Fold this sequence. Notes:
The structure holds three protein chains of three kinds.
Chain A: H1 5-23, H2 38-43, H3 49-52, E1 56-61, H4 67-81, E2 86-91, H5 94-107, E3 116-120, H6 121-130, H7 149-155, E4 156-157, E5 160-161, E6 163-165, E7 171-176, H8 177-182, H9 195-209, E8 214-216, H10 222-230, H11 248-262, E9 266-268, H12 271-280, E10 286-290, H13 294-297, E11 307-311, E12 330-334, H14 341-350, H15 356-366, H16 393-401, H17 413-428, H18 433-450
Parallel strand pairs in A: 1-2, 1-3, 8-9
Antiparallel strand pairs in A: 3-12, 4-5, 6-12, 7-10, 7-11
Helix pairs in contact in A: 10-11, 17-18
Chain B: H1 2-54, E1 57-58, E2 65-66, H2 70-77, H3 79-110, H4 118-126, H5 133-143, H6 149-156, H7 168-196, H8 200-208, H9 213-241, H10 245-251, H11 262-272, H12 277-304
Antiparallel strand pairs in B: 1-2
Chain C: H1 6-34, H2 38-42, H3 52-61, H4 66-97, H5 101-112, H6 118-134, H7 145-149, H8 156-166, H9 172-179, H10 184-195, H11 197-213, H12 216-221, H13 230-238, H14 245-265, H15 267-275
Helix pairs in contact in C: 1-14, 3-14, 4-8, 4-11, 8-11, 9-10, 11-15, 13-14
Amino acid sequence: xxxxxxxATVLSAVMLISMAACGGNGGTASSAAxxxxxxxxxxxTASSAASDTAKKLTIWAWDDTFNVKAANEAKAAYAKINxxxxxxxxxxxxxxxxxxxxxxxESGNMDGMPNIVLIEDYRIQNYLKSYPGVxxxxxxxxxxxxxxxxxxxxxxxxxxxYGVPFDSGVACVFYRTDLLxxxxxKPADMENLTWDKFIEIGKAVKAKTGKAMLSVDPSDxxxxxMMMQSAGKWYVDADGxxxxxxxxxxxxxLTIYKKMQTAGIxxxxxxxxxxxxxxxxxxxxxxxxxxxxASSIKKATDQSGKWAVASFPKMSNVSGAVNATNCGGASWxxxxxxxxxxxxxxxxxxxxxSDTELLDNLCKDISLVSTYKDASSxxxxxxxxxxxxxxxxxKDWIGWTKNIPAVNYGTSTYDIENKMTEVVxxxxxxxxxxxxxxxxxxxxxxxxxxxx
Amino acid sequence: MDGNRTTAAGQSSKKLTHHxxxxxxxxxxxGFVALGIxxxxxxVFFPMVGALxxxxxxxxxxxxxxxxxxxxxxxxxxxTVGKALGNTFIYLIIQVPIMLVxxxxxxxxxxxxxxxxxxxxxxxxxxxxxxxxxxxxLIMKSIFSNDGLFNQMLVHLGLSPIMWTxxxxxxxxxxILSITWRWTGYNMIFYLSGMQNIEPSIYEAAEIDGAxxxxxxxxxxxxxxxxxxxxxxxxxxxxTLQLFDEVQNITQGGPANGTITISQYIYNLCFKYTPNFGxxxxxxxxxxxxxxxxxxxxxxxxxxxxx
Amino acid sequence: MxxxxxxxxxxxxxxxxxxxxxxxFPFFWMIVSATNNAREVNVGKLTFGPHLAENLGNLFHSDLxxxxxxxxxxxxxxxxxxxxxxxxxxxxxxxEIFHSKARDRVFNILLLSMMMPFCALMIPxxxxxxxxxxxxxxxxxxxxxxxxxxxxxxxxFLIFFFRQNTKSFPKDILEAARMDGLNxxxxxxxxxxxxMRPTYAAGAIITFMTSWNNYLWPLVALQEPQKRTVPLILSxxxxxxxxxxGMIMAGIVIATLPTGFLFFVMQKQFVAGIIGSxx
Lengths: 452, 307, 279
């Protein structure tokens, strides 16, 4: 049949659209670039040697009070060495970054992706194993002997190091000295606690001050993760197999979690914002989290001088448990096919991978505990922090970091944790711990095996 | 002879012309609809088949391989799927009826020409429909945040604030409230237009026979609106089964999967956790089956009572 | 004369007034909040404040690319609407004017596509575009305007909508046009399209609105922050660690303006668009 005019018009319209999509980034009146290199990236096709040394870098990170601030300070430091490189730091929610990384890696299309991206330690194994080749080999940037082992372990695959380690997520108990004092406890009493003692103190705090001891988030089981790692365990074992039903550390962690709620020493705070608000508004006496949480605690400037830091409590009923653990922590990675790879590698090697002065400044500015070994001798490290009752917190943190048990995070931490939130809800409602864990074991095996 | 030939030829040529015309029209017919059929096939039917095929595969990201029934077996044990289905059914059974009944009542009231301010009420109640789902979700989120406007009012009245996003029960209530706010006006418009097609004279006839308000409603309005009520029930059901924007933006599916929906779980399986497209496709197929089942059931029920 | 039931009347008006108030209140809240700063919104301030300029400033000058997203959304919605109207009206016209049993059967099958839930289509569509990109056809792969527009340029709903509205079309003028020597496409363009302008208007409103407000598919298909559409940006702002609701509300006000405008100015077609398929 003769192609009629209608069809012809439509076809040409479709062709026009695809050409438009090829050539531009679709925006009509694009405002003068917000420094993002998005527009140029779409034009770029195969990366040539010339584009590897492109002079524009984009960095993606989350948490304005911590990571993003660090990236901006690194940007300032690098500008002194290489003023002709433009660096753009973009702050995005972690979930957004993860979703976009997934899309890009899956489709192989790196348009719009940043050169440098912050990836949490829990997630990196997944990317390294599912999408080999998308992240650049940084073995010549990250000198193995300069960084702490437990961080390097997460980013090493086939003997190659793929990232630049950033912060230690060494966990601790942040506590309000004034509230603890009212309950009858001195700082010395908070050292080397066991969880049973912690709960006991919590009850006293509740009774004498009316405040809860800490807040819990039904959707974020950071507390459980920390407790598990303090005994050298995780949701999966060293080989990556599901370790749920027969995991003594997990069982004890869940038992403690339930005990805290039954003792009435917790309040529920859903979401990051609510948790920080609970702390800033003085609704809780402690926060048990990674050291990077300090920057959020410090937002309540009126509470300066009323806080101190103590080591992570020990699970006395589990053999191998210690007073040290990790929560979160991330590292910097370079996406290989984004133009500017060599510039990105240079940026990282001159900042986070070697600049002790930068890391020392970050120690003071955002309470960074760096995993760069030499940073521990920086001058700010031994400085007392006025907010935290003039305690030399960095020294304490670095000291505890040495005791963190290394674990294999596996590739499916967040999937598994999604299951575990439901396990926790069941247990809190009274279900049998062993039965619930047995069911969970089957499910987690499904998650892990499917991912393999 | 000539005459005969002409007659025969004339007749057969007429038939021929008619036949050719039909064929020509038929070809034009296909020509006009061809592109539409092709596009829908590419973007709906072809992907559906693809989803079915993928549901039998498993693996991380690009590394997919055949897995047989593994996904469906895992699905069977998957508590999150159970939760998502449970939540969806709660939304279906509670929110849809409330909304449709409300819309019906409002339309009946607004159909009364003697009511003052009809246009104002109609416009006001329809206004929620101009918001995008993301927009109104954020508006609701800010009104119902723990220290937000609504809780401030409660405290003002001497009541204790409700933990909307922290408590599984209240989180569901919030979602149901939000959806009802957004879509009642939409359904009201359907009922109103349907009622405007009903001859007012039959109501007058019924009144002469002594029918009161409730009788008119039950025995006349509702049966006459049956097709439209059925339509809105089916579309609301399909919409509820695909709920995503609201739960993603107000509660993120929480607390602890207390409000999660299947769409959201599928999204998480592909873009939040380690991507497993095979398993996600298997989960998606539950929705397909559910929609088909529910639509068939509703159509059977609706059709049965057709006069 | 019917006895006026006063209590019932009062109840009726009360009921409607309460519902109207509840329906409109969130809009009031949205506008008021756009003039306050984040802290004030968080504690439920109900009065206007002086922070509108500040909120707008933050909205457009941060690296959120809100301004760019308005352009993206507009372009996507415009292109989708034009293409969808064209393709669907042609198909709807074809099904109705060139009526045949075979085509009716095909039509019913197409209608089935309306029941396919998007969450099931999302994954294969995602992989389809992803594979196109991998195969080197970058222009039609993921993260392109094409990928966001393509799945929506022909929907069974619109075809159904046009077909329904064509049922009342006077088919004799088509015959007359054919006698005058116009070919079929000519008939369609010169006879059908002008008469069906109201239907096109209603269809344009539905399609534009759906595209402007579309969330899940652009969320999945677009990875570049510069390519994002308005709902995506609003959602990202809402899910940040500490959402700045003053700024977000200002963004929502702007995002709702197009549909609000369409609604108030073209109310009849708006409503006609929604109920068109139910006739």
